[in-house]
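Technical note accompanying the year-one report. For the benefit of new consortium partners, we illustrate the data format agreed upon in the data management plan: each record pairs a sequence with a structure-token string. No post-processing was applied to the example shown here.
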Amino acid sequence: MAAVLIFLTYLSIILLIGLIVSIISQKFKVPNILLLLLIGISVGRVNYNGKPLIYFPELFLTSISIMALVMIVFDSASRFKLRNFDYFSLHTLWLSLVFIIFNLIFLSFFTMIIFDVNSIFLAFMFAALMSGTDPAAVLSMLKDVNHKVFDFLKLEALLNTPLVVLIPFLILDLKTTLKDQILITTFIEQFIPILQQFIVGIGSGVLIGLIMFKFMKKQYSVVLSPLAVITAALLTYTIAENLQGNGVLAVTTMGILFGNVYVKQKFQIQEFSSIFSSALEILVFVLIGLIVAIPFSLEFFIKSLLLFVLYLGIRFLAIVFSLRGMNFNFKEKVFMSLNTQKGIAVAVVVFSLANLNILGMETILNLTLTFMLYSIILSAFVLRLSDYFIKGETQK
């Protein structure tokens, strides 16, 4: 009983810190996720009697990470509306795909060279993660500003979030299945198991989604409907994983299905899931700071800064390549290139991967957390100079 009270105390403290940090961030116009990460990193380096000041069992961390992963994946995928695709949306999606491809080609190569990463799958995983953008926390500081650049960045984050969460786990499954060997013969031998993961994942998402949403089309309950959605998302993940399928793909499929079918009071249900996800957000950002120990060495920071600069160059090239013909000037493209803030989607994947004992994963986690800090700080700084980069801002 004493141990349970200790863990509950830790959780209460973390949530309280999250609330206080949110208030402070709004007052001083500082991204709250930056403060949460810094608090987690600081507390994680404090020991008491030779042990970490705050400690959670691995089983608890794994459970929280899966729950957070499922809710964030579902919430982001459910906002993916197929009927709203237009010229602007197609270019945004094209940028997301080009950025992911460029990162997989170039960033993975630079990562393997600079940090001696031996596994190409881990390099691919890091490159895919870095393709995610989430300017919400930073752009919230300019609530009254309306401009096509900000609209483009928000839409890009909405479109790339499901991909950024899904692709690293697909790569992880390939790494496990192919046993770190990219050989034609090995791939052919493992083609059926790989295909099975895709089919079972998509099938589970469609099946559970259709059954659940069939009942929700006719009836709505303020309490039961949001609870049914959360239950369906968790059930979809567990069923897919138990059937040797991809749970993240299953939840993504169900989320897209939910976002594109008629359900009574869909907006209210989505808002409830967002609030639930926000509570998990606080836990995730603080906990990854606790469990991912960034090496505080000059060599690491020099190498990581070099890689981050190369990453920004890749981002700029992707924007220039994919936005040809669109009405964005050079300064606006530079502004978009520098706004690559990582958010909850990347954080929850890092949190989930941190609980896996995979050789070489520590370097990837350290780099990811470091890039999160770099990108948030850079985005916050660049946003304060938005008048230089962007002209003709209009107030809502």
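Partners are asked to follow this layout when depositing records. The radius of gyration is 21 Å.
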